[in-house]
């Protein structure tokens, strides 16, 4: 993969709060390509090149976990050549960046069922996961052949296979058997490309995520766009189904 030098990043904005886990639906590669009179493959290539500066910027902000939606269980329905292009770009991404990510303490993990991935991609993913397993910096999950509902189904199936009784099928137990076991839930879910959907991404883990939708196509999502999303997150008032503490005026006095 030819690595384009990233433009100089703007100064890092200070943030009062930051998400522990950021997840990104990298949408708009095809429309970006059309708007530049390029092929869809070239759009995906530009999309793959946009990833590294985004990881770097999130790292500068001290984000602990990033999950990238590289290929969904539904994406197999795309034309075969496009599927091959995306999978090859995934492999190229690993070939190009694993060394650098490893040096920077990043731990790469794979989310999704590896069984349907071609062997050449499965082996590369596994090698990168093994190689970076001892790192204690940012965790970067590459979701390849991932579907949120399938993740929940496999979690429950694993629980049952372990002999769990009905009363042991709890929210905590399901969370602990998902592909993201041990990681914090998603705090901020970013979707580029103007669509306002979750598209079977981390449906369980993003239940209380703040959703950030931007019209910007993924290949144009850069450090300044990362900053904008994090600044917006810091402005949000997260209530998790509760009421704001200031509005509990009768607390302690109600009969
Ligand atoms: C959505 O754009 C993008 C994808 C389905 C693939 C994302 C893949 C990459 C960025 C490259 C490789 C990934 C990794 C993790 C290294 P779209 O094709 O749906 O765009 P459109 O909505 O404009 O058609």
Brief digest:
The chain is of the alpha/beta class and 255 residues long.
What does this structure look like?
This protein is of the alpha/beta class and about 260 residues long. It has one domain: Undecaprenyl pyrophosphate synthetase, CATH 3.40.1180. The chain contains eight helices and six strands; from the N terminus they run βαααβαβαβααββα. A six-stranded parallel beta sheet has the order 3-4-2-1-5-6, with helices on both faces. Strand 3, helix 5 (about 120-130) and strand 4 form a beta-alpha-beta unit. Helix 1 (about 30-35) crosses helix 2 and helix 2 runs parallel beside helix 4. The N and C termini lie far apart (about 70 Å). Residues about 250-255 have low confidence and may be disordered. The structure holds farnesyl diphosphate. Farnesyl diphosphate binds next to helix 1, helix 2, strand 2 and helix 4. Farnesyl diphosphate binds near residues 28 and 86.
- Return the CATH topology: Undecaprenyl pyrophosphate synthetase
Count structural domains.
Answer: 1
What structural class should be given to the helix and strand makeup? alpha/beta
Terminal Cα span: 68 Å
* Apparent shape: globular
Kindly state the mean pLDDT as a whole number? 93
């Amino acid at each position: 993969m030819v690595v384009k030098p990233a433009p100089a990043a703007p100064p890092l904005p200070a943030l009062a709060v930051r998400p522990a886990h950021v997840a990104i639906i990298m949408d708009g590669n095809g429309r970006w390509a059309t708007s530049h009179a390029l092929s869809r493959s070239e759009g995906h290539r530009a999309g793959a090149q946009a990833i590294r500066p985004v990881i770097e910027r999130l790292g500068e902000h001290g984000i602990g976990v990033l999950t990238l939606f590289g290929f969904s269980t539904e994406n197999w329905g795309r034309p075969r050549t496009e599927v091959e292009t995306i999978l090859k770009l995934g492999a190229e991404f690993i070939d190009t960046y694993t060394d650098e990510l490893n040096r920077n303490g990043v731990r790469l993990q794979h989310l999704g069922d590896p069984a349907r991935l071609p062997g050449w991609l499965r082996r590369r993913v596994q090698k990168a996961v093994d190689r970076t397993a001892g790192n204690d910096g940012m965790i970067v999950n590459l979701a390849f052949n991932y579907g949120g509902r399938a993740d929940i189904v496999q979690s429950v199936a694993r629980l049952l296979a372990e002999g769990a009784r009905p009363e042991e099928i709890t929210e905590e137990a399901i969370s602990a058997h998902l592909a993201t076991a041990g990681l914090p839930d998603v705090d901020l879910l970013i979707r580029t490309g103007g669509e306002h959907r979750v598209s079977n991404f981390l449906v369980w883990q993003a239940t209380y995520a703040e959703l950030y939708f931007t019209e910007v196509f993924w290949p144009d999502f850069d450090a300044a766009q990362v900053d904008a999303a994090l600044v917006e997150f810091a402005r949000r008032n997260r209530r998790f189904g509760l009421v704001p503490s200031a509005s509990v005026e009768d607390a302690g006095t109600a009969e």
